[in-house]
Design brief:
CATH architecture of the largest domain: 3-Layer(aba) Sandwich
Order of helices and strands: EHEHEHHEEEHEHHEEEEEEEEEE
Strand order of the largest sheet: 12-15-14-13-16-17
Structural class: alpha/beta
Radius of gyration: 22 Å
CATH superfamily of the largest domain: HUPs
CATH class of the largest domain: Alpha Beta
Helix content: 10-25%
Number of strands: 17
Distance between the termini: 45 Å
Number of domains: 3
Strand content: 25-35%
Shape: globular
Length: 355
């Protein structure tokens, strides 16, 4: 059996390649070239971090005796990931580009390359598990190491994809992965995990948006909950729901961003209790089973990557919409982020929050 290993240059995907070889697979390593220095606002005179990662991935692949390719997906990445990221912030929405990258790059473009190269599987270093139930349905499950679990960003996977994907790290702990890398002498055994969005290496989203659009953010009004202008903001791309820091508004009690309106260029602020809601509407919902349930679905739901899933009921609607009703109100539900449903450690599906 032949496997195409997506190698980011990090320790996780490097160990994934090693483990697949140990399981007897013929492996081909690859790295996706997704952006250039200019896209990340990095000077041409510097080596972009993505190029350093390519070198690390190549070093590990060659140490394992694997063929290695670099696939240039920068045009597609610019169109489907960076452009969407920019347009969302301009519309007052907080996107999750890592989810889009998984959907359109790792599990779309790489599947195409795997077919060309005659590979049976696409392999990544995600901390998640894939199992088959007694009826032959493919299940996506949480990674064994819940501190590293990445099932939340994989909710878009289909039955076909799950049948042709391997997650070798899903049943292991992060400490085990670093130990394996050290024993194999991998150059990235102690390499820190990536924390930022790859094309925003310094975390300054507004700077990247201004770089790509060539436009400065337009200031506008901060509104209180009654619609009164109580100050001026520095452009809606600088804010997200629940934000407290950097508002620059004097008030007797702490103020938080409650909503963002791109049409009139306003940011509404309120108190902490104004941030809670029990009903969440989700679009483009992907049911991993491939079947839309009838009626109410008792489950737990998660509305951001680092949060714990909470008891809820999901109600499938028309046009790929799902209404999620939580037992307890959730704080700072943010349009553009993902809502993902779980039954125990099984991912039922997920979609994009719209309200």
């Amino acid at each position: 059996m032949k496997a195409l290993i997506a190698m980011s240059g990090g320790v996780d995907s490097s160990v994934a390649a090693y483990l697949m070889q140990q399981d007897g697979f013929e492996c081909i390593g690859c790295t996706m070239h997704l952006y250039d220095n200019e896209d990340a606002g990095v000077s041409r005179s510097r080596t972009c971090c993505s190029l350093d990662d390519v070198n690390d991935a190549r070093d590990v692949a060659y140490s394992l005796g694997m063929d290695f390719f670099v696939f240039n997906f920068s045009r597609d990445f610019r169109h489907q990931i960076i452009d969407k990221f920019i347009s969302c912030y301009q519309e007052g929405i907080t996107p999750n580009p890592c989810i889009d990258c998984n959907k359109y790059m790792k599990f779309d473009k790489l599947f195409q390359r795997a077919e060309i190269l005659g590979c049976d599987y696409v392999v990544t270093g995600h901390y998640a598990r894939i199992e088959k139930d007694e009826d032959g349905k493919m299940l996506l499950k949480k990674g064994l190491d819940e501190t590293k679990d990445q099932s939340y960003v994989l909710y878009m996977l289909t039955q076909f994809q799950l049948a042709h994907i391997k997650f070798p790290l899903g049943n292991k702990w992060k400490t085990e992965i670093r130990d394996i890398a050290a024993r194999q002498g991998f150059c990235n055994a102690e390499k820190p995990d990536s924390q930022d969005i790859c094309f925003v290496p310094d975390g300054d989203y507004a700077r990247i948006i201004e770089l790509h659009t060539g436009k400065k953010c337009e200031p506008g009004c901060f509104l209180d909950m009654q619609g009164k202008c109580i100050g001026m903001h520095h452009g809606i791309i600088n804010y997200t729901i629940g934000q407290r820091r950097g508002l620059g508004i004097s008030a007797q009690e702490p103020l938080y961003v409650v909503s963002i309106n791109s049409k009139d260029n306003t940011v509404t602020v309120g108190h902490d209790n104004d941030l809670y809601s029990s009903v969440v509407r989700v679009k483009e919902f992907n049911w991993i089973s491939g079947v839309i349930p009838e009626g109410r679905v008792q489950c737990k739901a998660k509305i951001r990557y680092r949060s714990k899933e909470q008891p809820a009921v999901a109600l499938p609607q028309e046009n790929g919409m799902v209404k999620i009703v939580f037992e307890k109100s959730q704080r700072a539900v943010t349009p553009g982020q993902a809502a993902v449903l779980y039954d125990g450690d099984i991912v039922l599906g997920g979609g994009t929050i719209v309200q």
